[in-house]
């Protein structure tokens, strides 16, 4: 699927393309179209020095008092209730069984199951692992208190364990409904995350977030307050690293704050080019500006 096309005359809408390392304006007005050409490949710059150990106790977070072990245990119980055959993963058949019990119209079950699989299956193996499920749910449910999370889990577990249709509705689907990207957007976000995750740990850590600040990030000897502020926005569960799921959730909120798919793709193109060649970027990329300016 592609982004929608403008119906206005080209004379009124065509604007200069964004140079790969130029900052993109994120005003809430119609933006220019992103470049359709790929930036010339550049050597991947090395981040100097080992990962930096930083005390983040002073970084402002709004997670409240949480029992992280209890939250993960609750999500594990939820996963196990959905994993009917106890294989250690949730497949499309098990998603359909859950959706049937929520009362979803039979004619829509296959499409709904495919949607849930697409949103939670990060590695595209058509299975949802415990890690994929827990990381996605924790990122999406970060605003829930421990008690509210327990209630949510209880609803899903009760529905999944019931033999009949129950009245709670599609509790799982409702949480995931706001996490929506077009195919090209999802691919671009996945590419960007891999570019930022230089050590291939599966997470973007503090020293890697410097790439989001362009040349100023590469030149800094110590992590700045801006890097810590960006981590606080991206890191939903407070473990001081950013998972793929947390990255998706934040980018989904940013997408909704912009006026068009073209503007969102321009932002992704801009920050991807900066991440590939941060030493050439003299201004902060658009994503860093948005994360530092908005409350997501």
TrEMBL record:
Protein name: EF-hand domain-containing protein
CDD domains: EFh
Taxonomic placement: Eukaryota, Viridiplantae, Chlorophyta, core chlorophytes, Chlorophyceae
Domain EF-hand, first and last residues per copy: 70-105, 108-143, 184-219, 222-257
Annotated keywords: Calcium, Metal-binding, Repeat
Annotated PANTHER family: EF-HAND CALCIUM-BINDING DOMAIN CONTAINING PROTEIN
GO MF assignments: calcium ion binding
Natural source organism: Volvox carteri f. nagariensis
Signal peptide: none
